[in-house]
Amino acid sequence: MKRRLRLGMIGGGQGAFIGAVHRLAARMDDKFEFVAGCLSSTPEKAEASAKEIGLNLNRSYPDFKTMAEEESKREDGIEVVSIVTPNHMHAGPAIQFLKKNIHVICDKPMTATMEDAYALMTAIKSSKAQFFLTHNYSGYPVVREMRALVKNGEIGKIRIVKGSYLQGWLGSNEEDSGSNKQAEWRTDPKRSGAAGSVGDIGSHTMHLIEFITGLKCISVAADLTTFVEGRQLDDDASIMLRMSENVKGNLSISQIATGQENNFSISVYGEKGALHWSQENPNYATFSKKGVADQIITRGGVIQSENSYAGIRIPPGHPEGYLEGFAQIYSDAADIILHHKDKDNLIELLPNGESGLHIMKFINASVISSKNNSKWTNLDSI
Question: At residue 16, does pLDDT exceed 90?
């Protein structure tokens, strides 16, 4: 019987959306046991949150430094920590736990600032522990099948990539309502970082394009806009891309697109064919070839990739999606840590420090480009 990894959590207490998502995802494949946490930066709220979810109060900590110190001393201490705080609180806890050689699973983006990103990267390289980022869409079976098709040359040399991520939930001053914690920190540069929509959902879009294609973004020409009066960060962006292998692309990012919920889509166009996927219908992708009727790729249907099959938990026709994508990241991370599967193969699939730093460069290059009249800006200059 495979043992469960002992898991702790930083953040994710009362009023936090993403903490419960991570806890559900970690439990889905029965590879983790949640045993400790610092669920809030406010000690009283941390304790109240621990009581609410049934966490042993003896292992509910008032701050992450105390938690890292105490858990590293215990024979039954945590082996992995999930960091599910706002962006500005990713680096500090991650560095602290990596110093104790405790594995880290961190929400995206990697950090709020480039300075923190480089500091965290140094800690990752110095630690014996693993560091993973939860770009959960890369865990979807159909997305992994698209990656396999591209890698196998099924669409030929890639010419164009297009990504669109449209939401409407920040179409007004939600951050000033006093009742929307998610809007408050995501529009606050001190907690979110240099970008708003580009850091929040643009990071997912860029990561997934690179994940599917194997290409890297080289430079950007970005036009970031803040439409809502009084808001401090961008809520809409149009970004042109220059990718490796002379591939061109563009992104359309918005959190003020009235009527849109989570309309995230990726298209990849090659010399022989094209692939299209939409997050709101995540169990299907379209495979187009010149002169041939479109093929529909289905989760659990006729697929090529072993990594795609690994993410299928229930029979075809039963929808899987967002939570299962997170669960796949956790499941693969557990298998890497415990060496249950081909480690090198899985490491290729999971977002890590290197990919996280690259996405941070993309975010900051986009901000700099926009401030300079959409001037082409190389990521390597960041």
Answer: no
